[in-house]
């Protein structure tokens, strides 16, 4: 499902709730699409928190263009995608895994944060999910992470 299928007003939340979403809540969104949250252990000392939208079980067998990993920006977390993800599910995406990158949200803390470490963390999360190929949604430093991932792992 190409992002060009979305109208700008819908992405910007034209029909969104009147109050902003609290990105630190671990409760169900105010939309009709529920999300689930879990942590994935990517190495001996590090767990990454994931907010799943859609059907996590079906994601393993669906087409790569129907499953997404979402990577947030600096000083942000998985809640960034709380308005976009349910609208994508409504329009045919099967699953969206919104990550709390290391040092953010409900994920573990460690030094260093960001840079190539996030690229390798993204690779490990995809492997833990069993997603060899997938689409990426990202912004800000998450966009840089995604570009580096695509350059290093073009077959993914």
The helix/strand series, from N terminus to C terminus, equals: HEEHEHEHEH
Strand-residue fraction? Answer: 15-25%
- Fraction of residues in helices? 25-40%
Count of DSSP-assigned helices: 5
Distance between the termini: 17 Å
What structural class results from the helix and strand content?
alpha/beta
Give average pLDDT, whole number.
83
Shape: globular
Largest sheet: 5 strands, mixed
Q: Please provide the count of β strands.
A: 5
Question: Rg to the nearest angstrom?
Answer: 15 Å
Order of strands in the sheet with the most strands? 1-2-4-3-5
Low-pLDDT stretches: 1-31
Summarize the structure.
The chain is of the alpha/beta class. Helices cover 27% and strands 21% of the residues.
Secondary-structure blueprint:
Blueprint: H1 8-11, E1 35-43, E2 46-54, H2 56-59, E3 67-71, H3 84-90, E4 95-100, H4 115-129, E5 135-138, H5 141-152
Please provide a written account of the structure.
The protein has 156 residues and is an alpha/beta fold. The protein has helices spanning 8-11, 56-59, 84-90, 115-129, 141-152, and strands at residues 35-43, 46-54, 67-71, 95-100, 135-138. The chain has five helices and five strands. It has a five-stranded mixed sheet. The chain starts with 7 loop residues before the first helix and ends with a helix.
List keywords for this structure.
156 residues, alpha/beta, five-stranded mixed β-sheet, 27% helix, globular
